[in-house]
Automatic annotation (TrEMBL), chain A:
Pfam families: ABC_tran, DrrA1-3_C. PANTHER family: ABC TRANSPORTER ATP-BINDING PROTEIN, ABC TRANSPORTER ATP-BINDING PROTEIN NATA. Belongs to the ABC transporter superfamily. This is Sodium ABC transporter ATPase. The keyword Transport applies. One of its GO terms (molecular function) is ATP binding. SUPFAM superfamilies: P-loop containing nucleoside triphosphate hydrolases. Coiled coil: none annotated.
UniProtKB/TrEMBL annotation, chain B:
One of its GO terms (molecular function) is ABC-type transporter activity. InterPro entries: ABC-2_transporter_component, ABC2_TM. Keywords: Cell membrane, Membrane, Transmembrane, Transmembrane helix. Its main location: membrane. One of its GO terms (cellular component) is plasma membrane. It holds the Pfam family ABC2_membrane_3. The chain crosses the membrane at residues 25-42, 170-190, 227-246, 258-281, 341-360. Residues 27-360 form the ABC-2 type transporter transmembrane domain. This is ABC-2 type transporter transmembrane domain-containing protein.
């Protein structure tokens, strides 16, 4: 299933939560929405699953290149504000959700058995939800989202409340969904995890998309400054290095070693020529910023 | 999937959510014990009461009184010497020229047994007085028999039994149980769902209207079950107590029209009240701190109207209340139980109730939709008013 979001705007009483957002996610892709709290990720996700509607713009769904209505059996949604009936057993909760999704009793039971085994929760099936740890409750929530084998899975903060082991486990499940051809859209704060698995990234701030595409594309869009390292064969005064055009900041590591922060406009080959005029250069390299640093840099600017 | 199938599934889940076998059996046993105790309380109290010794100075032997042991004495002075030590009271009975006899009971403290002794001995002394008057047996019997006063009800083919007279009370008590049940369950169901954050997940599967209708169905059925349980328990306890007491078992005469009318009015009335409760409960964020919780007790007033007109079920006020849709579910069954309500009258009232329930349910869905996804705050009264009348919020 493919989802196309075009020029979507959502206003609340005093704030524009989503501002002219465009994005596309196709089957077999994992699209990650990133952004600080209040960036508009959850508002966008709620519109995608039909809980609220855009004030303008459109959200369309396609199956085999045919526009379709989003039916409850076609998607699974894990909300940010999530919970299940604490006084009912794990199986009761899942059975109820499965039946409301239109699954038959037999289908529901077989799917529950399969997923509980996959998540190592079979022995706890008859326990009330309140007896489960937060992490296990989170797993049951995820099962409730995936129970009916949906083509589109929308997960709002799927890693929150999970320990590193279970985060890895969820990553494995998401990878399986991708391989099955499922469209996965998730919002998250865990950059390192997102960097590892997402096919597409959409970075949002104050309702707007500030960068989107593959990891390399996003990196390119966000790269406002480059970090370079230079090592001279002989000591060079720092003032002379800092005075070079395009160099914004110099961090002195020794009398010969400097870490330079330069504006994006600086051509590295020109800078290298200028540095060689100051003294013999033993080493000159560009430092790669990770997504977390780029994300912070972009949001702060 | 069809809308009614979703509603049935939600209704079934809501019913099972509150129907717990162990609690159900425990409450049945508890209710039966409480009814039995309340009915047999007098007997139980007498059998457990201690026996009081009373010194008596009287010209004749006194009849036995439960839990009282008479200690006959000839002089008053030695009797008073025992007061507070061996006897709890001293009873002096003397002939009196004006009243026939005069009795005086002296005790250190006032207690319940003194009233019983007074009542029973007054009756005994009255008979003694009549016996001393040299009257014939017929004259004494005539004096003891009050003039007859018979009320003849022409409308009834046969006089209503005491069980028949108790029928309206039974119906009202059971409806009250249903109304309080719906208040408690609907409030718990919705505020728990909001607090446990179940709402957002479910609202991607079902519409607010389907969800609310399912809740109304499940909780109304649960309340009907409670009503039937209470009725059965009351009737069973009365039967058991009659059998133990050796009395003839007397059950109210119930006809099909009464059962049908009561069932229909109770079902629809509870559905209407549950719709009100559902809409309103969705706007409550935290039941422990919300000032709006008390508003949910208002439907109890509708049943209260039924108790208010129970002594005159065919009076003008009762007739008006049995047509007024907010009270008809409680008042019309009483009038039908009393007899003399034409079939078209209760069917007409039922049609008005149906229409009102539909209107209230539609308004409640709008309120439910407004409140169910609001966390940490409650909609203002103004916003609720706009939702109720169908304005954009």
């Amino acid at each position: 299933m493919r989802i196309e979001v075009e020029q979507v705007v959502k206003d609340y009483a005093t704030v524009r939560a989503v501002d002219a957002v465009n994005l596309t996610a196709s089957g077999g892709e994992i699209l990650a929405l990133l952004g600080p709290n209040g960036a508009g990720k959850s508002s966008l996700v709620r519109m995608m699953v039909g809980l609220t509607h855009p004030d303008s713009g459109s959200i369309r769904y396609f199956r085999d290149e045919q526009a379709v209505q989003l039916s409850t059996s076609a998607f699974g949604y894990l909300p940010e504000d999530r919970g299940l009936y604490q006084d009912r057993t794990l199986v009761d909760n899942l059975r109820y959700i499965g039946r409301l999704r239109g699954m038959s009793k037999e289908q529901t039971q077989s799917s529950i058995d399969q997923w509980l085994a996959r998540f190592n929760l079979t022995v706890r099936a008859k326990e009330p939800m309140r007896q489960l740890s937060k992490g296990n409750q989170q797993k049951v929530q995820l099962i409730a989202t995936l129970l009916h084998d949906p083509q589109l899975v929308v997960l709002d903060e799927p890693f929150s409340g999970l320990d590193p082991v279970n985060q890895e486990f969820v990553l494995t499940v998401l990878e399986e969904l991708r391989q099955r051809g499922c469209t996965v859209i998730l919002s998250a704060h865990q950059m390192a995890l997102v960097e590892r698995m997402a096919d597409k990234l959409v970075l949002m701030n104050q309702g707007k998309v500030i960068a989107q595409g593959s990891l390399a594309e996003v990196r390119k869009q966000l790269l406002q400054r480059s970090s370079l390292f230079v090592e001279f064969a002989t000591p060079v005064p720092v003032e002379i290095v800092a005075a070079l055009p395009g160099v914004e900041q110099v961090e002195v590591q020794s009398a010969q070693d400097f870490a330079l922060t330069c504006s994006e406009q600086v051509a590295t080959e020109v800078l290298l020529t200028q540095l060689q005029q100051l003294g013999p250069v033993r080493q000159f390299s560009q430092q790669q910023q990770n997504l977390h640093e780029l994300y912070l840099q972009a949001v702060q600017s | 999937m069809k809308r009614w199938q979703q509603i049935m599934r939600i209704g079934g889940f809501e019913f099972r959510r509150f129907f717990k076998w162990k609690q159900e059996l425990f409450s049945l046993v508890l209710m039966a014990v409480l009814f039995a105790i309340s009915i047999g309380w007098g007997e139980l109290k007498t059998s457990l009461e201690e026996t009081h010794q009373v010194a008596v100075v009287a010209p004749f032997e006194l009849p036995a009184v439960a839990n009282i042991e008479w200690q006959a004495m000839t002089e008053a002075e030695p009797a008073f010497a025992l007061l507070g030590k061996e006897v709890a009271g001293v009873l002096l009975i003397e002939p009196d020229p004006q009243q026939g006899y005069r009795a005086e009971l002296v005790a250190l403290n006032s207690a319940g047994w003194q009233g019983r002794v007074q009542t029973q001995l007054q009756a005994f002394l009255q008979q003694q007085k009549l016996g001393d008057m040299n009257l014939s047996e017929e004259q004494i019997a005539a004096l003891n028999t009050p003039p007859s006063f018979t009320v003849i009800i022409q409308r009834d083919e046969e006089a209503a039994s005491s069980a028949d007279k108790a029928l309206p009370s039974l119906i009202l008590v059971s409806i009250m149980v249903g109304v309080f049940g719906s208040f408690g369950l609907m409030m718990t169901a919705i505020t728990q769902e909001k607090q446990q954050r179940v709402t957002e997940q479910l609202l991607t599967l079902i519409t607010p209207g389907e969800w609310m209708d399912g809740k109304i169905l499940g909780i109304t059925l649960h309340c009907l079950k409670s009503m039937v349980t209470v009725l059965v328990i009351i009737v069973l306890v009365i039967v058991v107590m009659s059998v133990i007491g050796g009395d003839a078992v007397e059950l109210p005469s119930i006809n099909l029209e009464l059962v049908l009318a009561t069932l229909l009015f109770a079902l629809l009335g509870l559905a209407m009240i549950n719709a009100m409760m559902a809409g309103f409960a969705a706007t409550i964020d935290d039941p422990n701190h919300s000032g709006r919780t008390a508003m949910m007790l208002i439907p109890a007033l509708f049943v209260g109207a039924g108790f208010g007109v129970m002594d005159s079920p065919q009076g003008l006020l009762a007739q008006i209340l049995s047509w007024f849709p907010l009270t008809s579910f409680a008042v019309m069954p009483i009038r039908v139980a009393d007899g003399g309500v034409a079939w078209w009258e209760w069917l007409g009232s039922f049609a008005v109730l149906m229409l009102t329930t539909y209107v209230i349910r539609s308004a409640a869905v709008r309120l439910f939709r407004l409140g169910i996804t609001m966390y940490g705050k409650e909609p203002s009264w103004r916003l609720m008013g706009r939702a109720l009348i169908g304005r954009r919020v």
